[in-house]
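Troubleshooting log. The previous structure file for this entry was overwritten by mistake, so regenerating from the original sequence record. Sequence copied from the archived sheet and checked twice against the printout by T.R.
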Amino acid sequence: MKKTIKTTSLAIATALMLGANLFAQGFPPQSTQGGFQGPTINSTTVADAKKLRDDTAVILIGKIEKSLGNEKYFFSDNTGSIIVEIDNEDWGGLTITPQDTIEIHGEIDKDLLSIEIDVNRIVKK
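Regenerated output below.
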């Protein structure tokens, strides 16, 4: 009987320790962050971006020349200029001046009368 109590107590203690360990790691256990590794979209020019279809993902490298208000900015590279929309939360804490070269990741936002880039991420070069 004493042997059964000791074995049961040991089993319960082991289960509690394993449970506490799983809880500390997160349950269900979290794996390391993964994702796709392979070809991605290449950077394009403003001139080429203007020819692309609505909602096409783009990466542009150039400069923001000025603010137009309402989260819209005048962006240019050596092929032309385009209006980009950058939501306040998408700046990622960066401070950008007209002298800074940046890489913007976004998508084409095209309607009947205009074309803009809806920016999702900015990288200072």
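The CA atoms of residues 19 and 27 lie 9 Å apart. Archived copy saved in two places this time.
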